[in-house]
Design brief:
The protein has 248 residues and is mainly alpha-helical. It is 77% helix and 0% strand. Helix 1 packs antiparallel against helix 9 and helix 7 packs antiparallel against helix 9.
């Protein structure tokens, strides 16, 4: 990332509001998020974030992109959904299995009969639930750290398989610039969460939540894009490496 990390953070916060059509852009993103429960609208939001990532990684950081070429947005959105489903699907399945096993231990102990067996089953079940909860926190945190790097690998190479390549993803997520960018994105996400909590105090404010969320997503994506842009990957040519570096 740029040497002035404070400036990078400020640029990320400002980025979603750049350009002449900023209100229109945020309005579209917020409305799509508002109807995200229909699934297809949220894919366009995912696709837009990938467009932001692609532009920022290419050094186009002055103005946020417009909502256009909807077919491309949908295609990128589907790819982002698949990547996210895999990265979060694995820990989700492990946690689900752990919960099932813990409840089985609880009810199996109670079904054997006798206060001692029931107590042992309950103790084992509750201990299992505690371990599962702890494991879940770790797994989801790891997935949350890896996912932006995996998406960046896909955008950088334009190959879906790169998102699941251990060597490619490892090159990105173990880089110091990525770690700093991820922390920036995490901080921005916390600020957006705080803003949404404040907005939800009133009925009118609730209407602004999808727009605040979209703004935060774009700012987070900008931060990740800046961090990843300067990370060389295997197979990059000198020309590609130069072209991928930000101009500012």
């Amino acid at each position: 990332m740029a040497q002035d990390t404070t400036q990078d953070f400020e640029d990320a916060i400002r980025y979603p509001w750049t350009g002449d059509r900023n209100v229109e852009r945020i309005a579209i993103g917020g409305l799509l998020g508002m109807f995200g429960f229909l699934f297809v609208p949220i894919l366009f939001v995912y696709g837009y974030n990938l467009r932001v990532l692609r532009n920022v990684m290419a050094g186009e950081t002055e103005t946020a992109p417009a909502f256009d070429d909807w077919g491309a947005l949908l295609g990128d959105g589907l790819s982002a959904f698949v990547i996210g489903a895999v990265y979060f699907g694995v820990p989700f399945l492990l946690v689900a299995v752990g919960w099932i096993a813990s409840f089985f231990a609880f009810f199996a102990g109670a079904g054997i009969g006798g206060d001692g067996a029931a107590s042992a089953g309950a103790l084992l079940g509750f201990f299992g639930l505690f371990v599962v909860q702890l494991l879940a926190g770790v797994l989801f945190l790891v997935a949350g750290y890896l996912l932006p790097g995996a998406v960046a690998a896909y955008v950088r190479t334009d190959t879906l398989g790169a998102a699941f390549s251990p060597s490619t993803v490892r090159t990105i997520v173990t880089n110091r610039d990525y770690a700093i960018a991820w922390l920036f994105a995490f901080a921005i996400n916390m600020l957006a969460g705080l803003a949404t909590n404040v907005a939800m105090v009133t009925i009118v404010g609730i209407l602004f939540v999808p727009f605040i969320s979209f703004y935060g997503q774009v700012a987070c994506t900008y931060a990740i894009g800046r961090g990843v842009a300067e990370i060389p990957l295997d197979g990059d040519s000198d020309e590609e490496w130069t072209a991928n570096q930000p101009t500012a």
